[in-house]
Amino acid sequence: MILVTGATGTVGGEVARLLAADHPLRILARRPERVTVAGPAVDVVAGEYADRDSLDRALKGVRAAFLVTGSIGERDDVRFVEAARAAGVRHLVKLSALAVTDPAADDLITARQRENETAVRESGLAWTLLRPRAFMTNTLSWARSVREDGVVRALYGDAPNATVDPRDIAEVAALALTEPGAHEGRAYALSGPAAVTAAEQTALLGAALGRPLRFEELGPERARAALLARYPQPVAEALLHSAERQRAGAKAGVSPTVQELTGRPARSYAEWARDNAAAFA
Q: Where do the coiled-coil regions begin and end (predicted)?
């Protein structure tokens, strides 16, 4: 039995879909009605990290678990690790972020990600850490302005980022979960095949849509105002700090991990844009 958390999200949902056809699968979800993955051996358990009883139910009989957490203020990874250890889980595959390897990344989000990694590494269980760059799906936030105005608005349009397709992250996660012993004690850096800027992504997205799009640079203050409208101030400031590191080139490095593990090149942003063009049309 494999347990997947975060199955209503971007990566967890892809992991669950990859596993559902061929493996006994359990999904832990706070809102089970939002789980779209189904199969003859798929079991959905309602629960959350703060509810130990639901964790115990979800982890019973589980050999390996895919762990996704997103809260800044909660000890969700610690809670999960404690329950997994008590349930006899053998292997944790943890979704983290590549920023944890950058000493200059001292923002709130990255600091918490480092703490979460430590909880997993010190759990006494076998572990695998997945450290991706930014998801290509983050650009879905441009969909409304693309549809309505033909414009992409973003901060630092010339700052490169080796963004990664969540499907590639999910494929690596599925390998780690289903190949016992092959990935234990490993931390995998995951990126796309090339670093691209927001301005370049705009052009690639326009090509996928068959119409030109215009890129509009957001200054720091407009970007801060937009982020504060969506997030608490500490999170908004952490994201702005991340953008500054990207502007300095800290996110331009490309990792060969996807190709090494899957046997094929990582998907490009052009591929992702073609596959997701309907979301912007």
A: none
